[in-house]
Amino acid sequence: MYKYVLKRLLMLIPVIIGVSFLVFFIMSLSPGDPARTILGETAPIEAVEALREELGLNDPVLKRYVDYMGGLLHGDMGTSYKSNRPVFDEIMGRFPATLKLSLWGMLFAVALSIPIGIISATKQYSLVDGVSMVGALLGVATPNFWLGLILIIVFSLNLKWFPSGGMDGWKTYIMPVITLGTGCMASITRTTRSSMLEVIRQDYIRTARAKGVKQRVVITRHALRNALIPVITVIGLQFGYLLGGAVLTETVFSWPGVGTYLVNSIKAKDTPSVMGCVIVFSIAFSIVNLLVDLLYAFVDPRIKSKYK
Amino acid sequence: MKHTHVSQADSASLQPAKKKRSMAAEVWMRLCRNKMAMIGLAILLVLVFCAIFANQLADYETLVIKQDMSIRLQGPSAEHWLGTDEYGRDILARLIHGSRISLVVGLVSVSISLVVGGLCGALAGYYGGIIDNVIMRVMDVLLAVPSILLSITIVAAFGTNLFNVMVAIGMSSVPGYARIVRAAVLSIKDQEFVESSRSIGTGTLRIILQEIIPNCLAPIIVQATLGVASAILSTASLSFIGLGVQQPVPEWGAMLSGGRTFMRDAIHLTVFPGLAIVITVLALNLLGDGLRDALDPRLKQ
């Protein structure tokens, strides 16, 4: 098991190198001149040229990339053009806010979707099933930023229950968490339902029932555990959407996280910050995927035995 | 699909052409029996109609982009069914013209990911070995960046215009198609009909195009239908954070973003463009789910 974890951790390295190269390469193809952006349109050409030299922008792309990677190894992601502070500090200062929002969003989604999925599957074609399936279809189709705006209109502007933005006390969490979690909730509900439906038709479930095992125990002990594998896969996949969705949700609710910082950096053409944000999000996503793969082992002993 | 059937000994005597037609017809029949899919298809047909006849339904110059501050921020009325926006432009007219953009972006970006991803997946699956390894490791890297962030990066680097948005969204979903096509190719390439084609001297490219691709169409069609839906969502998301189509072009996400400032007094600016997105994406998802069930009845519960 430890060997497997170590192997997977080592496999993160080429992915991170690849991602940073990809992002670096795309950003270096950008037509604008960062030195010009920093100094403004009216700055003299000599000053712009001097700054280009100072920032190393006149070096070939590959050398710049190697320099950047060298810095990244000790947590140096360059200096923000806008604030003149290290990008790493800027991002790490905001990362806890994004992490909190994402984790609460995922928790909200999982806590509601798995029970709903189970009930839908055990009471197939009932009213509960119908309502939750229509809800799930709508949830998948609704852009989360729009849901956020609608929640603000209803609960903040009209009912005045919750504040429309910021991160200050539990009240400010409710709407962003719902906004971020709903899409995931819909997908996980659908997967849980179809996976449960498949499992409860298996012979061993019938056997368990025939032995007189209570319905509750059949569902929770015999069926759920076997139905969870595809659900975990979807949860892992959804985390990617969740991190992407965090960018939009944070923008809607002026949440002080990495997403808001990313959007502001894009508007300011602050290339090092944009790159830093995308790389941090990608590393976070890769780590989540690793955790998901490890989680399989705990749910399914057959997978665990393969790791040894 | 004919080759799959010819390869099975018991159906070898059947006429391939007739069999092929009946396959498509059978899928269509199954799709028709699926009420949800039919609702999705009907909504989509209305949308396509709106997109094609947008100019006949609402004049672009006078209703969609002409500003008239005397009638700004009006609620729904007989004259303006869905009200007017902050520049006095008719929202319904803008939504109708916006359907053009959404559908075009959806179709073009899915085509980009289909062609690039399909080609990569087919090459990787067909050749295997180093080519497979290199292509799939590149795909792993692309997959490690959450797709909306990859789109954001590309658009932020190259500038905000419709073409870049389509390329960005298309490129960000390349790995999904590459994986599907690769898996399909792997399951098909060693079957007898491919081998027999190779033995009579057919070139590699021709084998991929004529034998392999038609036989892995089913999962691709499903993925593409659902892909158009997520492309429409991504476009709206990009526009919402100011990275999509620019004013005064009537894009749904941009309309929503513009309406944000007036949420307090004129909620219709926010509500209607959002509903347009939800309905379109919902219709595509319903159709995609229906197609999946129709193309592979074994999957259906």
Automatic annotation (TrEMBL), chain A:
- Places the protein is found: Cell membrane
Superkingdom as given in the UniProt entry: Bacteria
Q: Which UniProt keywords apply?
A: Cell membrane, Ion transport, Membrane, Nickel, Nickel transport, Transmembrane, Transmembrane helix, Transport
Alphabetical list of Gene3D superfamilies matching this protein: MetI-like
* SUPFAM superfamilies, per database record: MetI-like (SSF161098)
- Membrane spanning stretches: 9-29, 101-122, 134-158, 170-188, 227-253, 273-299
Q: Which residues form the signal peptide?
A: none
What PROSITE patterns has UniProt attached to this entry? ABC_TM1
Q: Its membrane topology, per UniProt?
A: Multi-pass membrane protein
InterPro entries membership: BPD_transp_1_N, MetI-like, MetI-like_sf, Opp2B
- List residues of the ABC transmembrane type-1 domain: 95-296
Similarity comment: family membership: Belongs to the binding-protein-dependent transport system permease family. OppBC subfamily.
Under the subunit heading, UniProt states: The complex is composed of two ATP-binding proteins (NikD and NikE), two transmembrane proteins (NikB and NikC) and a solute-binding protein (NikA).
Spell out the NCBIfam families in the cross-references: Opp2B (NF045470)
Q: Could you tell me what this protein is called?
A: Nickel import system permease protein NikB
Recorded source organism is Pseudoflavonifractor hominis
The organism's taxonomy opens as: Bacteria, Bacillati, Bacillota, Clostridia, Eubacteriales
TrEMBL record, chain B:
Annotated TM spans = 101-129, 141-163, 220-245, 266-287
What PROSITE patterns does its record include? ABC_TM1
Membrane association type: Multi-pass membrane protein
Domain ABC transmembrane type-1 per the UniProt entry, residue ranges: 99-288
Q: Which UniProt keywords apply?
A: Cell membrane, Membrane, Transmembrane, Transmembrane helix, Transport
Q: Does the keyword Zinc-finger apply?
A: no
Keyword Transmembrane helix: yes or no? Answer: yes
Main location as per UniProt = membrane
Q: Where in the cell is it found?
A: Cell membrane
Domain of life from the UniProt record = Bacteria
Q: Which InterPro entries match?
A: BP-dependent_transpt_permease, MetI-like, MetI-like_sf, OppC_N
What PANTHER family does the database record attribute to this sequence? Answer: D,D-DIPEPTIDE TRANSPORT SYSTEM PERMEASE PROTEIN DDPC-RELATED, OLIGOPEPTIDE TRANSPORT SYSTEM PERMEASE PROTEIN APPC
Q: What family does this belong to? A: Belongs to the binding-protein-dependent transport system permease family.
State what protein this is by name.
ABC transporter permease
Name the species this protein comes from: Pseudoflavonifractor gallinarum
